[in-house]
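Quick one: structure for this chain?
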Amino acid sequence: PLGLKENALPTQRSSVSNAGGNFFMAGVGFSFIFSWLLMLLVLISFVLGGNIYMVVCDSWHSQQLFQLLDTPGLIPGFNLSEILGQEGGTTNISEMYRQCQQDAALWQMLHLGQRVSLDEIFNISQYKEEISMAFEKMNITLSPISLLSQRQKDMLLNASQAGQPPSFTSILEQLDQNLTKGSLLGLARELEQLADKVGGDVRDNLKADARKLRELDKEMQNSFSVLLQTLKENIHLVQGGATELEAQTNAALDKASEAQEFLDRETENIIKNETWAFLEGLLDFFETYISWAKSSLTGDVARCKPIAQTLDNMETITCDYILDSVNAFWFSLGWCTFFLLPSIILAVRLAKFYRRMQFADVY
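Got it. Here's what it folds into:
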C-alpha cells in the first residue's frame, strides 16, 4: 500500500507496488504447491489425536475402557482370573482399579485368600499339642534340699536350753534393801542422840557428821534410784525372754520341718507349673505375633494406590498435555487450511491492482 499512487497509470506503477503484486502471486503459487502437505498434516494429526482422545481419554473418564478390557474373549487366550488362579472368574480390571484407588492391599485386590489359607499356614495348635505331650513326658529330678540338718537342730535346742539365766530372786531382794549395809539415817539419829548427851566441840562435831550422813544418803538415793529401777526392769525382761526362748526355738524348728516337707512334696509340681506357665506365655506371644502378621499381610503390605496414581498420572500426561496439544495443533492448522482458498482468491484479485501492467485498460 505504501507504493501505490492514486493517480498513477497501471503501466507506471512503482517497483514497490509491483513487488507487492509479485509476492501475492508467489504466495498463490506456493499455496498450490505445498497446500497438500498442510492438508495431509491436518488429516493425520486429526485422525490420530481425535480418535485416540475419543477412544482412550473419554472412555477412561467414563470407565468404559476398563469395561471393554473386561469383555470376555476380547484378547484371545487372556483370562485374568485364570492367570491369578482364582475360581469363578470374579476378578476384573475395573474392580482392581477401583480398589487400588481406595488404597487396598494386594491381598484383598487379588483375592489371594482363595489360593492361600493363612489359617493353615499360621496354625500352631499342632505344635502346642506336641509341646504338651513332650512336657508331660518330662521328668524333673532335683537334688534333695535340706534346710536344717539334725546336727543343726540339736545345736539350736541345746543353745535354747543353755540360754536359761540363773535365778535373780536373791538379787532382786538385795536391790530392794538399802544401798549400804547399814542405815545411814539411823546412824545419823544415833549421832544426834549422842551429841545431846555431851557438850562443847564434840557436840558440834557429832551434829555436823550426822548432817553429812543425811546429805550422803540423799545424794545416793538421787543418783542410784533410777539406775536400780532400770536394772530391775532389765532383769525382768531377761527372765521373760529366757522363758520364751525354748518355745520360740521349738516353733521355729517345727516351721522348718513343715517347710522341708512342703519342698520335698511340691517342688517338682511347682517347677512344672511355672515352666508350663512360661511356655503358655511364649505361645501367647507367638499367637499375638501371628495375628499381627496376618492383619499386616492382608491389610497393610503392598498397598496398590501408587499403581492407580501412576495410571492416573499417565492418563493426565497423555490426555491433558500430549493429546490436547496435538488436537490444538490440528485444529489451528485446519482453520489455516480453511482460510487458504479465500486468501488465494483475494491474493489473485489484489495482484491486479499492485503489479505493473504492460497495457493500460482503455474504455
